[in-house]
From TrEMBL:
It catalyses: L-seryl-[protein] + ATP = O-phospho-L-seryl-[protein] + ADP + H(+); L-threonyl-[protein] + ATP = O-phospho-L-threonyl-[protein] + ADP + H(+). The lineage of its organism: Eukaryota, Viridiplantae, Streptophyta, Embryophyta, Tracheophyta. It comes from the Eukaryota. GO terms for molecular function: ATP binding; protein serine/threonine kinase activity. SUPFAM superfamilies: Protein kinase-like (PK-like) (SSF56112). Gene3D superfamilies: Phosphorylase Kinase, domain 1, Transferase(Phosphotransferase) domain 1. It comes from Carpinus fangiana. Its EC number is 2.7.11.1. This is non-specific serine/threonine protein kinase.
């Protein structure tokens, strides 16, 4: 083996020989190598000559050995295993069978020595680096020797083998098993490029973690250069993450963190929800109104075009607001720039800004409903309904001593004129309070708080409102830019308003107390206020604040940019909703009614006009001034008495081994859920039915105000229940009647008993039997539900006994996930927000706000 001769260093040659002999047990022991003579105390020249002879002899021996033992000897085997694939180049003159001269031998000796010295130098440099372990240094040493030896040193058989086994092979195997990266695939930001092999890559990963706070890369992510490449974006992502999340030990927890972040960010969630909505659906639903709609259709089209040109989409605004507030909220509560703006704007020292837009006389020249010479003092008082703020700011109510006198003259127009952009709906609410029996329409709401609504806890508007209340103690109209009149009802006018200094939009219902008192409508306003203060439901309005002055009572509520369902229905093809859309809307309304009933509120004024569409496409049931407040005694109905659907309540388990079908003991459930020899789909279906039946058969809590009775003549003509018209006294069942009319109208585009006038309508309600038009085609389930709801005798009406729970189980709603309906994609989203003009901007646009003029202590503003 020619390589032997390469170990020209005497000591190492001896070592090498020993090793070699040991390792190759079958080596010819009789053969005496000249090298054994090394160590004799001859002169240098003699030694060199011996060496030279040895080299020559070794070279020739190698050739002999190979030829003799080819194919069978371990030596040959060993020679075949030489790590030639490693690519270590052989120095010329070494490893061949040609004899070398003394000069050549000396040159090679020098080269070898020089390369070794270089390697040692490099090693001493690298090992001085902190943090490298002893094992790492040893490996580094091996590596350096290998590199240097393979590059310029002699290629010893044994050395090369060792190189492969110790330095390269283990490194590869370690790399693949432990996932440490080879140097050539290190991440750009990894440290220790000078460090070698295994230890360096390990160190590099650690360094990456420490420096960037990133999550340590998992084995599989770096197990090969390819994978590393594939995971590079992940590393970048993690790097971006470091500012917001602490390092986490695994990538799965990173994903969780990201999801949590996304989940905890209301703006993101909303955007994500929007992104889920298929665009064609949205566009497809924005059908132009058919020509038959004449004026209505033209108006719709006109409004759409105009608003598309000029509106400021609320979604964008809100998102930006949220972003703005979120960005700043990290430092301290209420310390966002938006809040600072609020502070600046609301600071008493900067009343100029405040006074530009509020505390004004409302004038409506163009509309018949107007506020003329209406003025309020600069300290229009606040009595926040927010329990939180009220508690923390006891001074709020004490400021009421500064109340200044205000007057408001209101020309009241008919409601239908105000609303009648799309149709001449005669569905104005009737609010004759005659008498109530056994219940009080005026009962007090206790323990209500508009500041404590869990489902809105992340709402940025809460924070903005709270901040104003905390900063100022009182909240008034001066804190809002009134942007637009949204509509006018029986007891007040609703404005779109922006909280000054924020982009938070609200709907403010302004009621003139003097006017209400004169018209004996104060109880209605009071009822609405009290009910609003109780509510905390995704399909019911959130009352952010309420403040009153001598003459004005203001309710600050959530703004719904999508208009109402009456308008939306008229935009539909054929002026009726497709059944799935109708099902969606009535289902959400049903949940809202269920909630109200549980609170002891009979709504009594259900109609599409009172159902607003939120920016996310879900609904909001508004307008509670006609509602009836009563007591409710929750009742637990046992399963045996619950026979809403005999077919479906036949028991959770049809298995004969289940002795008690209604038993929910685990022993009885086992047969139901044990594997059966059914196809997977059929099994899943059966399981679903079984579970549904089981749930249905469970004892049920009914919290309906079934005993409520009122003799008030309230409601809207087309929606009035027969018992109200007949004056027999009514209870919660009136809501199920109106629910039936509502579903009918959504599906058929008109109400079932509408006559030529109100009297005829009322007569039809009482006397006429229910008929379904031939078109549009409506499912028998829907018609069945309507039929059940529009039973004239309230006691036989569907839902009268068990309320919403009973209705929810009707086949019309089969398959509907009630618990998650608020997360489902609505039939359509409001395409824009018809604010009309941006809330902030140039002086020109600002002038489009309700114009403010200072008149002495008071301010006047003209309305549009
Ligand atoms: N939160 C809101 N977001 C957007 N628009 C609203 C909001 N609340 C009310 N509106 C609009 O203002 C109009 C007037 O509402 P308001 O509740 O005062 O009157 P109403 O619905 O006619 O009821 P009523 O006459 O029985 O009091 C509504 O028709 C609606 O279009």
């Amino acid at each position: 083996m020619g390589s032997f001769s390469g170990t020209c260093e005497i000591v190492e040659a001896g070592e090498e020989l020993n090793v070699d002999q040991h390792s190759r047990g079958t080596y010819d022991k009789d053969r005496k190598l000249p090298m054994l003579k090394l160590g004799y105390k001859d002169s240098l020249e003699v030694d060199i000559n011996h060496l030279f002879e040895a080299i020559t002899l070794k070279a020739s021996t190698k050739g002999l050995g190979l030829s003799q033992q080819a194919g069978t000897s371990p030596l040959r085997k060993s020679a075949l295993k030489r790590p030639i694939t490693v690519g270590a180049p052989h120095s010329p003159g070494f490893g061949n069978s040609e004899p070398v001269t003394l000069k050549q031998a000396l040159r090679e000796l020098c080269l070898s020595k020089a390369s070794e010295m270089a390697a040692m130098k490099r090693l001493s440099k690298s090992t001085s680096s902190p943090g490298v372990s002893e094992a790492g240094r040893i490996k580094t040493l091996y590596h350096a020797v290998v590199v240097e030896a393979s590059g310029s040193g002699p290629s010893l058989d044994k050395e090369e083998k060792s190189v492969v086994e110790i330095s390269l092979v283990p490194e590869e195997s370690k790399f693949s098993s432990s996932g440490k990266m080879p140097e050539q695939v290190k991440m750009p930001n990894m440290k220790s490029s000078s460090q070698s092999a295994h230890s360096s890559s390990q160190y590099a990963v650690t360094t990456l973690d420490n420096n960037t706070g990133n999550i340590p890369l998992q084995d599989e992510t770096v197990s090969s250069p390819r994978k590393v490449g594939a995971h590079t974006p992940k590393v970048e992502l993690l790097q971006k993450e470091k500012h917001t999340s602490a390092p986490s030990p695994s990538s799965s927890s990173t994903v969780r963190n990201i999801l949590e972040m996304v989940e905890n960010d209301p703006a993101s969630t909303k955007l994500a929800n929007k992104a889920l909505v298929p665009k064609p659906m949205r566009k497809g639903r924005s059908q132009p109104v058919s020509s038959s709609s004449s004026i209505v259709g033209n108006r719709v089209g006109k409004i759409s075009r105009n608003t598309l040109r000029s509106v400021k989409p609320v979604v964008r605004n809100k998102s930006s607001v949220k972003k703005k507030l979120k960005q700043n909220s990290s430092s301290a509560a209420c310390s966002s720039s938006a809040y600072n703006n609020v502070n600046n704007d609301l600071d008493p020292r900067t009343t100029q800004v405040v006074c530009e837009r509020c505390q004004c006389t409302l004038k409506n020249a163009s509309k018949q409903v107007s506020f003329t010479s209406y003025s309020i003092g600069p300290n229009d008082e606040v009595s926040p309904s927010n329990e939180h703020s009220g508690a923390s700011k006891p001074g709020i109510t004490s400021n009421s001593c500064n109340k200044s006198k205000a007057s408001m003259k209101m020309k009241k127009n008919s409601k239908s004129k105000e609303k009648g952009e799309f149709s001449q709906s005669s569905k104005s609410s009737q609010g004759e309070y005659s008498s109530s029996t056994s219940i009080s329409d005026e009962s007090n709401v206790s323990g209500s708080s508009c500041g404590n609504r869990p489902h809105m806890s992340k709402d940025v508007r809460w924070e903005a409102i709270r901040h104003v209340q905390m900063q100022n103690g009182v909240m008034g109209l001066r804190h809002f830019n009134l942007l637009k009149k949204l509509g006018c009802g029986d007891i007040g006018t609703v404005y779109l308003a922006e909280l000054v200094g924020t982009n938070c939009l609200f709907a403010i219902k302004v009621m003139d107390n003097e006017f209400l008192a004169r018209r004996k409508k104060m109880p209605r306003a009071q009822t609405e206020r009290e009910i609003l203060r109780m509510l905390d439901h995704p399909f019911l309005p959130t009352l952010y604040a309420q403040f009153t002055s001598d003459n004005l009572s203001c309710l600050v509520m959530e703004y719904c940019p999508g208009g109402d369902l009456h308008v939306l229905r008229q935009k539909q093809l054929g002026r009726s909703f497709p059944e799935p859309a109708a099902r969606f809307y009535v289902a959400e309304v049903l949940l809202a009614l269920e909630y109200l009933h549980m609170l002891g509120v009979v709504y009594r004024d259900l109609k599409p006009e009172n159902i607003l569409v939120r920016e996310d496409g879900h609904i909001m049931l508004t307008d509670f001034d006609l509602s009836l407040r009563c007591t409710v005694s929750p009742t637990l109905l046992k399963s045996s008495s619950f026979n809403a659907d005999p077919v479906k309540t036949s028991g959770p388990c049809t298995d004969s081994s289940c002795a008690q079908p209604f038993c929910i003991e685990p022993s009885c459930q086992v047969p139901c859920f044990s594997p059966r020899f059914l196809p997977a789909a059929a099994r899943a279906r059966k399981l679903k039915v079984d579970v549904a039946s089981q749930v249905r058969s469970l004892p049920q809590l009914v919290a309906e105000p079934t005993d409520a009775r009122s003799n008030s003549f309230v409601g809207t003509h087309e929606y009035l229940a027969p018992e109200i018209i007949k004056g027999e006294g009514h209870g919660a069942a009136v809501d199920w009647w109106t629910f039936g009319i509502f579903l009918y109208e959504l599906l058929y585009g008109r109400t079932p008993f509408k006559g030529c006038n109100n009297e005829e309508t009322l007569a039809n309600v009482v006397l006429q039997s229910l008929k379904f038009p031939d078109s549009p085609l409506v499912s028998c389930q829907a018609r069945d539900l309507i039929r059940g709801l529009l039973v004239k005798e309230p006691e036989n009406r569907f839902g009268s006994e068990k309320g919403a729970a009973e209705i929810k189980q009707h086949p019309f709603f089969e398959g509907l996930n009630w618990a998650l309906i608020r997360c489902t994609i609505p039939p359509e989203l409001p395409e824009f927000c018809d604010i009309g003009f941006p809330s902030t901007g140039s002086q020109e646009t600002k002038s489009k706000f309700l114009e403010c003029k200072t008149t002495g202590e008071h301010l006047e503003f003209e309305l549009f």
